[in-house]
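Late entry, evening session. Most of the bench is empty. Finally got around to the prediction I had been postponing all week. Sequence below, unchanged from the version circulated by S.P.
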Amino acid sequence: RQRMRLTLISGGSCGSNPSIYEGRPRLTTSFGVIRGTDGIVIDQGSGIQHVANRFMSDGKIERIFILQTHLHDDHVCGIPYNKLLTQDKIPMVGIWAPRCAGTSFDRVWDDRRGQHNWPVRGADIPRHNFNLDDDEPRLILPLGITIQRLNHAGGSVAYRIPHERGDIVIATDHEPTSDTNAAYASFVSGARLLVADLQYRDSEYEGQIGIGDGPAMKRTGWGHATPTLLARALVGCDPLPQEIWITHHDPNRPGRDWDEFADEVFKYFKDLKINVSAFASDDEIEEIENIEEE
């Protein structure tokens, strides 16, 4: 038989706003997963341009699903120029999004696609808003995708996309705490690939030093992780994810410091025997499982 192919596309992985610095990721969050003939978009930050281009040129995708982790601007700012929303070659099944801070995705959708914001509206697409009323993973899609609530201001979710050779988990925008670590570890355990938030050094998070030329300030409660916080969240995994990519890079970190920070993170997790293998970038593609005959 044939195994379903599995591909991860990192369209953009910068947090908060696009970065002005060269030599590092600059576009905001958008990931794409190709599972068999299904294309799954996770978030529509400015990196959606790369994901859309990859999907449109793939030639084998038969339908597209869009998932929003949450509604902050850096994750929805690419909606007006997401060419998947205006094309008519690949059917769009729908958009799934959590209600965050009392706001539904419908409000964001109407604002981003209104003529005051963008001249071309495109076809309407079914939208499914769900509540963040518990911490239990719930089946929300026919593809078997499940969700887990994350610790982020206003609310956010992680998505686990199943595959016969191992699952992909996208868990951007999460500040691990002792109250959330058990649920997080249970959700990401055994994943083939985990895309995880890690934005700050511990010293930056605690306000001991600034980022780039910026002032030192405490970043506790901002909804993002440090090496120590992520490591604590992973302790309860059984087993650990096979591979971890780091995402939600701080936009104020210059390219040289971004390289130094990445080296620090790789060494820290290597010493813990946790396989952090990459910092997600712009327009990066990873073929995890090719179609093979068995």
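Two things to note before I forget:
DSSP finds seven helices and 14 strands in the chain.
Helices lie at 48-58, 73-76, 105-112, 181-188, 202-205, 227-234, 255-271.
Will write this up properly tomorrow.
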